[in-house]
Amino acid sequence: MSHQCPRCHNTKIIKNGFARGQQRFKCKHCNYQFTTDKIDRGKPMWMKLETAILYCSGMSMNSIAKLLNVSAQTILNWIRALALENYEKPEPCEAVVVELDELWHFIEFKKNKLWIWKAYDRNTNRLIDWELGKRDSETLKKLLIRLLKWDVTVYCTDDWKPYQELLSKHPDAYHVMTKSETIAIERNNSDNRHWFARFHRKTKVVSKSIEMVDLTMGLFAKFRVNGTIDSLINQRLTLLS
After folding, report:
1. Three-class secondary structure of residue 51 per DSSP
2. Rounded-to-10 torsion of CA 98, 182, 188, 76
3. Structural contact between residues 132 and 213, judged by C-beta atoms closer than 8 angstroms
4. Could you tell me what percentage of the chain is helix, strand and coil, using 3-state DSSP and rounding each to the nearest 5?
5. CA quadruple 54, 10, 30, 21: dihedral sign
6. How many CA atoms lie within 13 A of 132 on its CB side?
7. pLDDT in tens, 171-214
8. What is the pTM of this model?
9. How buried is residue 89: exposed, middle or buried, by Cβ count under 10 Å (0-12/13-18/19+)?
């Protein structure tokens, strides 16, 4: 099956690695990267970028769908495609002080909580990793195993029991257990809820899939913590000029 660039519709496409298990392609004409050509081409690219900008600015998918007069499913498809193309976590380096905390969310219904365990590098102000699951030691363990490659010197957490149990097994890193040393990640949690309607505290939004929560966390890290949405805005302006 021949692939076509969703942006410029050129057929000069090359394979360019994988993104979350899906083949990534790159357009040789405009250098645009994408994971699939199954994208609704009935709407212009600037509208898809507008969708991403609005989604990363606190609007829900249903609200965006009404504003742009398209279906909510179409908005979800566009957001998913963009998130897959931009899903990345920082390359490991020395992270001297890492703050850990959990953020709750809902899956399918309000009584079913999903916990987002986050790792924030205080020195670079980057969100370096996250793990989704229950609020237990097993979920935290998965995150801590991946953080070993960062050579963390100090972990800062609150006094939640799993932190004390698991970090005591990391003798190379000092563990500070106090709320006064997790201010940065608490602020990050606040930004998480502010910039994405999906994570608002008093919300009607309940996620239907863990995948979209994970992809939304990727967008949050890419465009609201480790970078900005300026690149999306500039792309949209270029297409409209």
Report:
1. helix
2. 70
3. yes
4. 40, 25, 35
5. positive
6. 16
7. 789 999 999 999 999 999 999 999 999 998 766 677 899 999 99
8. 0.81
9. middle
* Rounded-to-integer distance, Cα 100 and Cα 90, Å: 16
How far apart CA 61 and CA 3 sit, in angstroms, is: 28
In one-letter notation, the amino acid at residue 141 is: K
**Alpha-carbon span 6 to 67, nearest angstrom:** 23
Largest CA distance in the chain: 57
What pLDDT does residue 38 have?
A: 47
Q: Round to whole Å and give the CA distance between 220 and 127.
A: 9
Chain-centre distance for alpha carbon 218: 2
Give dist(CA 153, CA 97) in Å, integer. 6
Determine the length of the chain.
241
Contact (Cβ atoms closer than 8 angstroms) between residue 221 and residue 236: no
Torsion-angle region of residue 133: left (phi > 0), alpha (psi -120 to 50) or beta? left
188-202: buried (b, 16+ CB within 10 Å) or exposed (e) per residue? bbeebbebbbbbeee
